[in-house]
Write a structure and sequence with these properties.
mainly alpha, two-stranded antiparallel ribbon, 5 helices
Length: 134
């Protein structure tokens, strides 16, 4: 939710005045989808363990139960792949929205002729990249 993050930029027309600039974008949906799927996967795994360990005879006698378990597992696997791809895309969008050159382009004060804006350092995204890869 980048729109909630304000930052101050200098206003070159006044001595000490600043303007508040808000970032653009809400990229939280892919991460929320990934976490929600992880919680549901955990709950399903716990339920399946109870079924396997406590009601083993029921699982062995009923021939439809293993097929249903397999189908649910395949669905979770597919959604996990989709969620991981969506999370990766969301991270790419966050990187694009917070790139220093993009921020400078969004600042009106940097568009004036006599003003020189330098981006400074590039944000470190190493931990975010690791979170998507793992």
């Amino acid at each position: 939710r980048l729109y909630q993050i304000p930052f101050e930029m200098p206003d070159c027309t006044g001595e000490s005045e600043t303007r508040t600039l808000h970032l653009v974008g809400d990229f939280s949906a892919p991460a929320e989808f990934f976490v929600t799927l992880g919680v549901f996967s955990f709950l399903y795994t716990m339920a399946a363990l109870v079924l396997y360990l406590r009601f083993h005879s029921l699982y062995g006698e009923n021939k439809k139960l293993p097929i249903a378990d397999f189908c649910v597992t395949v669905c979770f696997t597919f959604f996990w792949l989709v969620a991981a791809a969506a999370w990766g895309k969301g991270l790419t969008d966050v990187k694009a929205a917070t790139r220093p050159t993009s921020l400078i382009a969004a600042m009106g004060v940097c568009q004036e002729e006599e003003v020189v804006c330098a981006p400074g350092t590039t944000p470190a995204m190493g931990l975010a990249n690791i979170s998507v890869v793992r």
